[in-house]
Amino acid sequence: MNTIVVRLLSTVLVAATLAGCGFQLRGSTGQYNMPFQSIYLAFPETSPLGTELKRNLRAGDSVRIENDASKAQALFDVLGESRGKSILSLNSLGRVREYSLSYTLVFRVRDANNRELLGPTEITLRRNIAFDESQVLAKESEEQMLYRDMQADLVQQIMRRLAAIKPL
């Protein structure tokens, strides 16, 4: 009984100490310290990924999104963006049982003097989705939801990589 109480008290003491000192995992607040004050994003105007990345960058106080590349300290170049869907498994009748969805983005970041801050970087995300012929509309909706989830995950990965850039 005494050892349980001692363990419980020591656990509470450690948790209170960590909470009291302001300890937080880096990026856990959703705020990142970017090594530049302005950025130009080379996404098409209708790109949902570009819109979400802009929204996340604007959420922080330190970065301006420039519409003119010549005014930006950093240039985010999209080298490729693609979504894919491939058959992952078949049932005993040869019909699709599972698909594998993929979302790939290839990008680089340059400074105003055209020097690479981050070389060509590829991020590929994959999600598996079960398929049922009797629920085609529901599965299409689930597929779109998975792509939106991958897009949000991709934006967070981009934000972390932008924050990790070492200024020249």
Automatic annotation (TrEMBL):
Family membership, please give it. Answer: Belongs to the LptE lipoprotein family.
| Compartments reported by the entry | Cell outer membrane
Q: Which PANTHER family match?
A: LPS-ASSEMBLY LIPOPROTEIN LPTE
Q: What is the gene name?
A: lptE
**Alphabetical list of Gene3D superfamilies matching this protein:** Lipoprotein like domain
Going by the UniProt record, its keywords in alphabetical order are:
Cell outer membrane, Lipoprotein, Membrane, Palmitate, Signal
* Topology of this chain in the membrane: Lipid-anchor
Instruction: Return the protein name.
Output: LPS-assembly lipoprotein LptE
